[in-house]
Amino acid sequence: MAEINHFEYGWITPALSYALSVLGSILGLVCAGRIRTARTNGQRAWWGLLSAWALGGTAIWAMHFMAMLGFAVENTRIRYDVPLTAASTAIAVVAVGIGLAIVGTGRLNPVRLVAGGIFTGAGVASMHYTGMAAMRLNGSLGYDTVRVVLSVVIAVVASTVALWLAMTVRRGLAIFASALVMGIAVNGMHFTGMSALSVHRHEQAGEVTGAGVSTLLVPIVLAVLFGVVGLLYALLAAPTDDDRAAAAYLDGRRLAEPAPSTPTAAPDPVGLRARSTLGQPGTPFPSRRDTPPR
């Protein structure tokens, strides 16, 4: 059995993974709050997609990969299968998106919350173990069943709490505190699952195929950066509740104001107005044809 090191670079990788999970949780909770105030189904779907990407893509999957940077096995290189790695990303985002759709459609109740938590938690656990299956090394992986089950339970509980927070938390300080708790839960699930892992190294060293960590690191970091910038831009560009209230006030004020009326001239049966303008500059002198008969 090979020796495993989960903190090859010390506390740098777990600290960065926790920071990513907190950042993704903050953005995801803010986007989820916009789902509740959206007026159309299209707006709800848009904010749900952004929230799923923030929670599933950044808070869960990016955190998982960042923590895996510190994972090392004695006397063997670690490579990753690119299609399986991409599939683990899709699993995380889709699972969170479906969970948000379950709890976000209709009135929130315990049945919806538990159903969404179970589905999302199962998706998060599937993401984790799919990402682990994407590893290629000179050995075979084994798992302790009890710890695997414990990691799945933690994933379900954490997902249920995350969905409840996404549908109820609104204030900035509460969102930040909730993100700190969610970061602990996500990292706890990850390292519980990692503690269940054992590696039986093969005696004969074979060729390890797949993409190295350095090859995957640059595109993953760029995807996270562009994703975070895009989420921030979408949040800053979207109208707030104050903007909607101001627009509604201005619309109501325009409707309340009377329409401008065209002034009408008073009747002038004997031509007094015309006579009063004779002799003024710019007033034409009446011709003989316009002069009334005596």
TrEMBL record:
The keyword Magnesium does not apply. GO terms for cellular component: membrane. The chain crosses the membrane at residues 15-33, 45-72, 84-104, 111-129, 149-166, 173-191, 211-236. Residues 257-269 have a biased composition (Low complexity). Keywords: Membrane, Transmembrane, Transmembrane helix. Residues 256-294 are annotated as: Disordered. This is Signal protein. It comes from Micromonospora arida.
